[in-house]
Write a structure and sequence with these properties.
1 helix, disordered N terminus, 12-stranded antiparallel β-sheet
Length: about 800
C-alpha cells in the first residue's frame, strides 16, 4: 500500500500522523551501506511500547509484507521509514521469530537506492521446489514481490539477510492502471503459483495472474468489487475444518472479505456484500488494516497479522496485531471467519489466578480482582447472562485508586453488544478474552467470531495497574475468570550479531549494542558477552575490530562471569592467550585499530591453538588444564570494539596456505560459507603469498553491487592484475589504468561462479564457470610477480575455495 491514494480517510490518517509525529525525510541508501541498520539502542520498555505486539525498533511502520516461514524462522517484513516517525520513502523492514511471539529486529531488507522500483506493499513465498531457478546455495529462496503499476521480484538466498532484484528490477508484470500490493500463493491443486494485485481499472478490484516459476506471469481474470481496495489476500480455509469442504477467502485492506471458490484462474462468490474480519477501526492508521497471511506454514495453519497505526511512542510509530489463527465455521448466517490468538502466546505466561462461580452485584460493591496489579496480561471470562439483571458488566483496565481507568470493556445485556459491536449470548453465556498490552487491546469472543483490535495508551505507572470487574444496575453470574500475567517477548534474539551459538546471551560488564557490523561493546575494563552454548573441545572463530579498545577477543570454556580462557588481539602489538591471573602465551605482531581481524581457536584437551587472519599455521600453540569446559563468548577491554561472525564448527575460509591476510580497502570478514567483503569502491584482501607463474582459482559471487574477482601478481596496495566477474555482464581482466580484455556473458547477482587464472610469463588466461576453454587469453608484461588476493568493487562479495598450484 502507499499513502498517496484516493481514499480520503487514508490521506487524513497519514496527514495527522505526519503532523503529530514529525520525522525527517527517509534517505535512499547505497549498496555499500546495505543492509541498513540505523536503529538506536532500546530495551523495548518505553511507555506504550507493546511487550508482545511487534513494533519496529524505531521509525515508522505500516503494512505487513511478505510473511513467510523459512528455514526454521518466521519472517515478518513491513512497510517502513527507518529515518522518521511519519510515512516517507518506503523501505521493507524485517524481523524474525522462532515462534511467532519472540521477534528480533533485523536490518532493512529492501532499500531505496539499492533495490529498484517503488518499494510499496507486497507478498512473499518460499520457493521450496526452486521453480524459479533462483536458488544459488543450500537454502530455499525467499521470493518477495513489490512495486507499483506493475510487479517486480526480489529474492534472497541467505535466509532474508540480503535481497537482490531479479533482472535488475524489470517488471515481470506491467499494469497500465494504478496498481499495487501483489500477494502470491501456491495453488497446490494445479501445481503452480497465483497472484492477486489490486488495480484501479474501472474501479476497485484485483487482477489474478498465474505462473509456473514466479517469474513469467499470465493474466487469468479480474474480480471487481467496490469494497476491494488495497492489500488483497486470497487464501483457502476448510469449512469447519473438514477435508473436501475447501473455500477460498478474498480480503481487502479494510478487513472486509468474501467467501467463494477459486478454480485456478477465477475467484467466484455468490455474496453480494462482504463481511468484516475485525471490528476495530479498519482504515489506514486505525486499529486493523492491511492484514496479510503467512505462506509456507510448517503446520498448515493460516495465520494473519495486521497493521495497527494508532500506536506510537518517542521513537516509533505503528505496531502489528498479535498473530491470529484463522478458521472458517458454519453459522446461521453462512460461513464466517474466526480469529484466535496463536497458541504460542502461552510461552509468555507466568503467574495465573482463577475465580469460579461468583455473583457480581452492584449492590454488594467491592471488586473481585482487587489486589491484582498488572501491566501486561491476558483475561478470559465467561458470564452466565440467563436471569442477569445488570444492564452492563465488564472490566476496567489499568484502574487507579480514584476509580478512573484507561479503558472500560463493556457488555450491554439489553443491546447484546460488546464495545458497541454485536455479540449475542451463546447458550446463555457470554465469553470474552482480552489481550492487554502497553499500547494495544485485542478482544476475542464467541469462539473467535468476534475480533476487535484496538490501540490504547495504557498508563503503566505503579498506581495505574489495577483491574476492575464490575456490574451496573444489578447482578450477573461469573462462571469463571482467569488472569494470566504475560512476560515480555523482547530480547531473546540477536539483531545484527551473526552466530551459530545459542541464546539468550548475557553481558558481564560493559555496554553492548547492535550496530550494522555486529555487536559493539564499550567498556572501561574487561567486559564479556556470553552465549548459552557450552563446550569443551571445539573450533571457535570470529571477527574483531578494535575501535578505541585496547584489546578484544574470543572467550571460551568460561563461567557466567567470563572467567575462562580468552584469545585476544591487543593494540600493544600482540595476540594473547590468557585466563584470570595468567598470560598463557603471546605472539608479537602489529594489530591495527579500526581493522577487522579474524581469530580462530581450536581446543583439544589441554592443548589450545590460536590462528590469526586466516593464516595457515597457528600463532599460538600452548597447553593449560585450568578449564575443561564452559561457555563461548567474546571479550572487550578498555574502550569500544565490534565483534561479528561468532561460530563453532569447521566452516570458514577455505584457501591456499598463507601466513596471514591483510585488508586494503573495504571491510572483510569470515563467515561459515567463506570470505565476505563489503566495498564502496575497489577493495582488496591480500595474502602474504606471492607467485610468478601459477594456476589460481576460486568461487566468487557478488550481491547488490558491481564486481568481484581474483587478484594476483599484486603489490601490497592491490595494484596488480585482477580477473573479475561484473554484474553489467562481463568477465574482465584488468590492471590499474587499463582493461586488458573483456568477455561478455550474463552475471547474476547472488550466483556463485568459478574463476580460474593461469599465468605463463606475459600470457594470462581466464576460465569462467567451469568452461573447457578460456574466455580471456591475453598478454601484458606490467607485473611479473606479486601477491595473491581477492578484489571487490562497490558491493557485497563472497569468495571461497581459493587454490594456487
Amino acid at each position: 500500500m502507499r499513502r498517496r491514494v484516493k481514499a480520503l480517510l487514508v490521506c487524513l490518517a497519514v496527514a495527522l500522523a505526519a503532523a503529530v509525529l514529525p520525522g525527517v525525510p527517509a534517505a535512499a541508501g547505497t549498496a555499500p551501506d546495505y543492509p541498513e541498520f540505523p536503529y538506536p539502542p532500546t530495551t523495548y520498555s518505553e511507555p506504550y511500547r507493546g511487550q508482545f505486539h511487534f513494533s519496529s525498533r524505531s521509525g515508522w511502520m505500516n503494512d505487513p509484507n511478505g510473511l513467510v516461514y523459512a528455514n526454521g524462522l518466521y519472517h515478518f517484513f513491513y512497510q517502513h521509514n527507518p529515518h522518521g516517525l511519519a510515512w516517507d520513502t518506503m523501505h521493507w523492514g524485517h524481523a524474525t521469530s522462532p515462534d511467532l511471539v519472540h521477534w528480533t529486529q533485523k536490518p532493512v531488507a529492501l532499500e531505496p537506492g539499492v533495490h529498484p522500483g517503488t518499494l510499496f506493499s507486497g507478498g512473499g513465498v518460499v520457493d521450496t521446489g526452486n521453480t524459479s531457478g533462483l536458488r544459488t546455495g543450500s537454502l530455499d529462496p525467499i521470493v518477495v514481490f513489490s512495486n507499483t503499476n506493475g510487479v517486480s521480484v526480489f529474492y534472497s538466498n541467505d535466509d532474508g539477510r540480503t535481497f537482490q532484484a531479479y533482472d535488475k528490477g524489470r517488471k515481470v508484470i506491467d499494469i497500465p492502471d494504478e496498481s499495487r500490493d501483489p500477494k502470491v500463493f501456491w495453488d497446490a491443486a494445479r501445481h503452480r503459483w497465483a497472484m492477486v494485485v489490486w488495480s484501479s481499472h474501472d474501479g476497485n478490484g484485483v487482477n489474478i495472474y498465474t505462473s509456473p516459476d514466479l517469474l513469467n506471469w499470465t493474466f487469468a481474470s479480474r474480480f471487481a468489487a467496490p469494497w476491494l481496495f488495497e492489500c488483497p489476500d486470497l487464501y483457502p480455509l476448510d469449512l469447519d475444518g473438514k477435508a473436501g469442504q475447501r473455500k477460498w477467502i478474498l480480503t481487502s485492506a479494510s478487513g472486509q472479505y468474501a467467501v467463494g471458490s477459486f478454480d485456478g484462474t477465477t475467484f467466484s462468490t455468490d455474496w453480494t456484500q462482504p463481511q468484516q474480519t475485525d471490528l476495530g477501526t479498519t482504515y489506514a492508521g486505525g486499529g486493523f488494516y492491511a492484514a496479510e497471511t503467512f505462506t509456507n506454514m510448517p503446520d498448515g495453519r493460516t495465520v494473519q497479522m495486521a497493521w495497527q497505526g494508532g500506536n506510537h511512542g518517542s521513537t516509533w510509530t505503528g505496531d502489528a496485531t498479535f498473530p491470529a489463527s484463522l478458521a472458517l465455521v458454519t453459522t446461521p448466517d453462512g460461513p464466517r471467519i474466526t480469529r484466535t490468538p496463536v497458541a504460542e502466546l502461552a510461552s509468555l505466561a507466568s503467574d495465573s489466578r482463577t475465580w469460579k462461580n461468583r455473583t457480581i452485584d452492584t449492590a454488594r460493591k467491592g471488586n473481585l480482582l482487587d489486589g491484582v496489579r498488572a501491566d501486561v496480561y491476558e483475561l478470559t471470562a465467561q458470564f452466565d447472562v440467563t436471569g442477569a439483571t445488570a444492564s452492563r458488566f465488564g472490566f476496567d483496565l489499568h484502574l487507579r485508586p480514584d476509580g478512573t481507568a484507561d479503558r472500560r470493556v463493556v457488555y450491554d445485556t439489553k443491546a447484546q453488544t460488546l464495545q458497541g459491536k454485536p455479540l449475542k449470548p451463546r447458550n446463555g453465556k457470554v465469553t470474552m478474552r482480552l489481550l492487554v498490552d502497553r499500547g494495544q487491546l485485542e478482544i476475542f469472543a464467541d469462539g473467535g467470531l468476534y475480533s476487535l483490535s484496538d490501540n490504547a495508551d495504557f498508563d503503566s505507572s505503579a498506581d495505574s495497574q489495577g483491574i476492575g470487574l464490575f456490574a451496573l444496575d444489578g447482578r450477573v453470574t461469573l462462571d469463571s475468570a482467569t488472569f494470566t500475567r504475560l512476560n515480555t517477548s523482547w530480547g531473546t534474539g540477536q539483531s545484527t550479531l551473526r552466530s551459530n551459538l545459542k541464546g539468550p546471551w548475557h553481558a558481564a560488564g560493559g555496554s553492548w549494542s547492535d550496530v550494522s557490523g555486529g555487536k559493539r561493546a564499550s567498556a572501561p575494563g574487561d567486559a564479556f558477552y556470553l552465549s548459552a552454548s557450552t563446550g569443551g573441545d571445539a573450533t571457535y572463530q570470529g571477527d574483531i575490530s578494535l575501535d578505541s579498545a585496547r584489546a578484544g577477543g574470543l572467550t571460551f570454556r568460561a563461567d557466567a562471569s567470563g572467567a575462562g580462557y580468552t584469545a585476544n588481539i591487543d593494540t600493544g602489538g600482540v595476540v594473547k592467550l590468557w585466563r584470570p591471573g595468567k598470560d598463557i602465551a603471546t605472539y608479537a605482531t602489529p594489530i591495527a585499530a579500526g581493522r577487522t581481524h579474524h581469530l580462530k581457536v581450536r581446543t583439544t584437551g589441554h592443548r589450545i591453538q590460536v590462528w590469526l587472519d586466516n593464516g595457515g599455521d597457528p600463532v599460538i600453540d600452548a597447553t593449560d588444564d585450568t578449564y575443561a569446559s564452559g561457555t563461548f563468548g567474546v571479550n572487550v577491554y578498555d574502550g569500544t570494539a565490534t565483534v561479528q561472525n561468532l561460530d563453532t564448527g569447521s566452516g570458514g575460509l577455505d584457501a591456499f596456505p598463507a601466513g596471514s591476510w591483510t585488508a586494503r580497502g573495504g571491510t572483510w570478514t569470515v563467515e561459515p560459507d567463506g570470505l565476505h567483503g563489503r566495498t564502496a569502491q575497489d577493495g582488496f584482501y591480500l595474502s602474504d603469498r606471492t607467485g610468478t607463474d601459477f594456476t589460481y582459482e576460486g568461487d566468487l559471487s557478488v550481491t547488490n553491487g558491481t564486481a568481484t574477482g581474483l587478484t594476483f601478481r599484486s603489490g601490497a596496495d592491490g595494484a596488480g592484475y585482477t580477473a573479475n566477474i561484473d554484474t553489467s555482464g562481463v568477465v574482465k581482466l584488468w590492471r590499474p589504468g587499463r582493461d586488458i580484455a573483456v568477455f561478455r556473458t550474463p552475471v547474476v547477482e547472488g550466483r556463485t561462479y568459478h574463476l580460474k587464472v593461469r599465468t605463463d610469463g606475459d600470457r594470462i588466461r581466464v576460465w569462467f564457470a567451469g568452461g573447457a576453454d578460456p574466455v580471456v587469453d591475453a598478454t601484458d608484461d606490467t607485473y611479473a610477480s606479486g601477491l595473491f588476493g581477492v578484489n571487490g568493487f562497490a558491493g557485497d562479495t563472497v569468495a571461497q575455495h581459493l587454490t594456487v598450484s
